[in-house]
Amino acid sequence: MPQVAPRRWNLTVFALALFFVTIGCREPVDDTRLDVLAADAIDWLVRHQEPDGFWSGAAFDLVCAEEHDEPCGGLAGSAVHDVGLTALAALALMASPTADSDLRGPLDQALEWLVAQQDSTGNLGLADVFNHTYDHAIATLALARAVRLLGRDDLRAPLVDAVRYLREMRTPRLGWRYADFSVEMRQHASDSSVTAWAVHALLAAQQAGIAIEQDVLAQGLRFLVNMTDDDDAQAVADAEEAIEKARAELTRLTKLHDDSASSAAAISAQRSLIQSLEDEAPRAKATGRTGYFERGGLVSRIDAASELFPWSKSEACTAAALSCRLGRVGDTEHLDEAHELMLARCLELLPDVGNPEAFDAYGWHYVSVAVAHPLVPRRDAVRWRDALATTLTELQRTDGCARGSFDPHRFAWGSAGGRVYQTAILALAAQAHRGRHLNPAP
Ligand SMILES: [Zn+2]
User: Fold this and answer.
1) How far, in Å, from the CA of 386 to the mean position of ligand 1?
2) Ligand 1 centroid vs 400 CA: distance in angstroms?
3) Ligand 1 centre distance from Cα of residue 69 (Å)
4) What's the CA gap between 332 and 266, in Å, rounded?
5) How far is the CA of 244 from the centre of ligand 1 (A)?
6) How many alpha carbons fall within 13 Å on the CB side of residue 322?
7) pLDDT for 209-260, tens place per residue?
8) Same domain, 226 and 240
9) How far is the CA of 408 from the centre of ligand 1 (A)?
10) Which of 317, 320, 326 is nearest to 294 (CA)?
11) What is the pLDDT of residues 82-101, one digit of tens each?
């Protein structure tokens, strides 16, 4: 009997060793760097909140001037998107672990200001601004998260009105874009960027207990699927048809063969053509890319910024669509082929995360949201977050009043959004790993 105990002990040691070899030695997740830089970004946001509770894209420097020796400076953002900016900043604060304690005061002020902007149609944005759909969708998302994360049940009524307005803003193509009086609407009825914000808002509202018409949500998601080159069936069929035709031509040439040099050359050329068609066929496979308003197309860019920030260095629309499609935890047990393809497309950005041409905070935010989904392999999520933490640590300001913020001129959309936007969206990206944005399955 005395010998049994040591044997059991040995078995226990062996089992523990096996556990640590198989489980414990997996790549550690250290999000400390992201947590620290997110806290600094939020500190900057709180210091630059207006006394009335909102954040000003164009005039945030006025708050600096009152409280600090040197204003932050840099590019000013648009003056007509303070609703969207305030909603983004509120979302960043809500993603923090101290949302319900230290940050509760600034958050309640921001939410109160947002609700005060709502008109009788339910619209939270400025109705005469052509792209106020962005403001409205992001503000709807913020209200929905406030109901769920902060227990703000008093916001249910304005949220219901906001969801109704969002539904009414759908375009004939069943996605979302700009206000119907805008010229852009006549060129392209829907785009995947506004649609992604709208879908996230609806998913969050649904999770907050608001009844959402399922066809509205399903059609929004369908639009994002339609914009994604995630099915290679057509490309493969086209390649096969071309090869078949080339082979038929080879058969015809062979039958006509008369031993002349020209005939032999034609046959040889045709064989080369078939070979090249076969070689190229694999490259015709789906790219996994979501286009801005065409299937598999490129992202959107302000023309003036397209040279500094080339289209090809961003997968913002792919990541936005993927984050929506993975939006409901528990819908599936594993990533399907299309999602794997989209994820791979996003992760191809990794070598470029430190490349200034690829500084697209909007896209990085959505990649961060997508890789935080439990179905995404842990190793991929860790690789992404490590690369992001390294680059953001280098880019974050550490001096003066600007401490914690990000200089907008370094990023693709900085000239439109300014310092408040830049800092809020990166604070969201840095905190995506906490999963507070995820919409668990109803
Ligand atoms: Zn400042």
Assistant:
1) 28
2) 8
3) 9
4) 54
5) 66
6) 36
7) 999 998 999 999 999 988 898 876 667 778 789 999 999 999 999 998 888 8
8) no
9) 13
10) 317
11) 999 999 999 999 999 999 99
